[in-house]
Design brief:
With 110 residues, the chain is mostly helical. The protein is built from 4 helices and 3 strands; from the N terminus they run H-E-H-E-E-H-H.
């Protein structure tokens, strides 16, 4: 685990989940949409990928099933970890400027 509190694979997952695609800038406040089990004993419940399970276990994400589709949202601790990821010297903040602004505004509100 790096100085951000996130592993490299977790940082890669966050960059992939919140990158700009087709002109759409996803927001951290929208959360990460989780797939749903289609059959079996967990039918209808969120299927939490391994990349998210570790973040949930460490209190950086929380899963919400309040309204469909289920989503994983960053906790205040998770937002601080994402901020530390952004201030690393090698991180390309230009590509994720929409998230940088959101993280900075959230940190200022705390």
């Amino acid at each position: 685990m790096g100085e951000t509190g996130l592993t490299r694979s977790e940082e890669r997952f966050i960059r992939w989940s919140f990158g700009t695609y087709s002109g759409h800038n996803p927001s951290l406040s929208d959360g990460i949409i989780l797939p749903i089990w289609k059959s079996g004993p967990c039918c209808g419940r969120p299927r939490i990928p391994a990349s998210i399970r570790g973040l949930v276990a460490r209190g950086l994400l929380q899963v919400s099933e309040d309204e469909p589709p289920p989503r994983a949202y960053f906790t205040p601790t998770g937002i601080r970890a994402v901020r530390r990821m952004f201030i690393k010297p090698r991180f390309d903040t230009g590509q994720y400027i929409h998230l940088w602004r959101e993280v900075e505004s959230r940190v200022e509100m705390e």
